[in-house]
Amino acid sequence: MQVGRPQLIEWLSYDRKQAKELFEKARAIKHKNIGRKTFFRGLVEFSNICAKDCNYCGIRKSNKNSHRYKLSDEDILESAKYALDNNFASLALQSGELESRAFTSRVAGLVEKLMAIREGGFGITLSCGEQSEETYRLWREKGASRYLLRIESSTKDLYYQLHPNDAKHNFERRLGCIHLLRKTGWQVGTGIMIGVPGQTVEHLADDLLFMQNIDIDMCGMGPYIEHTDTPLYTRRNELWPMAERSFMTIKMIACLRILMEDINIAATTALQTSDPLGRTKALSYGANIIMPNITPGAYRDEYALYQNKPKTSDSFSDYIDSLETEIRAAGDEPGYGVFGDSPRFGKR
Ligand code: SAH
Ligand code: SF4
């Protein structure tokens, strides 16, 4: 649906009472166009080694307090077997950003191995940052089909408040990579962080229009959560309270569902961190994807993009039960055994 910038700004400025109407509208649009299934992506955070220095991120290269790891292929295959046992048909592999031949071929090999362990393969999302056209092409050929590369902010000025202004953190390159992903045949996902210092509802309205203009297939967006060992922590006094960041995230999800009725929208882990009911609210008002973290326990805490990341309980069966409860509380059914590709992509 086409919605003007002033209307979006008004919706994003709604208080909790006013937002009810917006939420109901988004919910109806989701049910009509997407249905009532929530799809799973088993999330494996396979390495926190990163060559970049994003100002907000706890695993940035310069953070000497971060203990670096990379999972072995065996560990990752073990996680994938867990996904298989729980009838998740899709995986999401996420890592810090490295651009090297070794990294490119490692991910390519990994995708190939993962595709072989499930009959019909997995729906694989990669989120491994900015890469060359050849690398995107290779990973796509090996069978991964979705890529998540957040623009973080579509306003250039704000982007450079969140990143060092140097060749490694170039706004145009990030944008160019999103276009390369489209060109090389991926279901393309992007997104932003909500509630970063200096951000306004005008910026957020522009982010929504940006996502609609470039016609994305998927979106992952969540609240910004501060991390002490990062430069952006010095601006913590400017932050909205956490409850406000969570509420704004739900409003953003609802607005995006109204703008783009047939894309996949994730209820993210960061949202669950900022509000225990965050994921259920997101699924109620527009989101249709949930990404259970299946990174092996020993490493899960080291992938600390932000602080207070939820710890998953020791028992995975309890974990699945709690996810099902969240999904049903939102009025949805768990979508086991299916990829849950972006309907928008299917129509291209
Ligand atoms: N390195 C890749 C993928 C891993 S980071 C990349 O940057 O694209 C995945 C996402 O985590 C980032 O896009 C960012 O939006 C989010 N993130 C990082 N630090 C965060 C923080 N402090 N609070 C909330 N989200 C954060
Ligand atoms: Fe690295 Fe991604 Fe964190 Fe930036 S957001 S420092 S690229 S892991």
Short description, anyone?
This protein is 43% helix and 13% strand. It has 348 residues and is of the alpha/beta class. It binds S-adenosyl-L-homocysteine (SAH) and iron/sulfur cluster.
Characterise this structure.
The structure is a single chain. The protein is α/β, with parallel strands linked by helices and 348 residues long. 43% of the residues lie in helices and 13% in strands. The protein is built from 14 helices and twelve strands. The strands form two sheets. A ten-stranded parallel β-sheet has the order 2-3-4-5-6-8-10-11-1-12. It has a two-stranded parallel ribbon with strand order 7-9. Helix 2 runs parallel beside helix 9 and helix 8 runs parallel beside helix 9. The longest helix has 18 residues, at 16-33. The chain binds S-adenosyl-L-homocysteine and iron/sulfur cluster. S-adenosyl-L-homocysteine is lined by residues 56-57, 94, 96-97, 127, 129, 149-150, 152, 193, 222, 224-225, 227, 270, 305-306. Iron/sulfur cluster is lined by residues 50, 52, 54, 57, 59-60, 96-97, 129, 305.
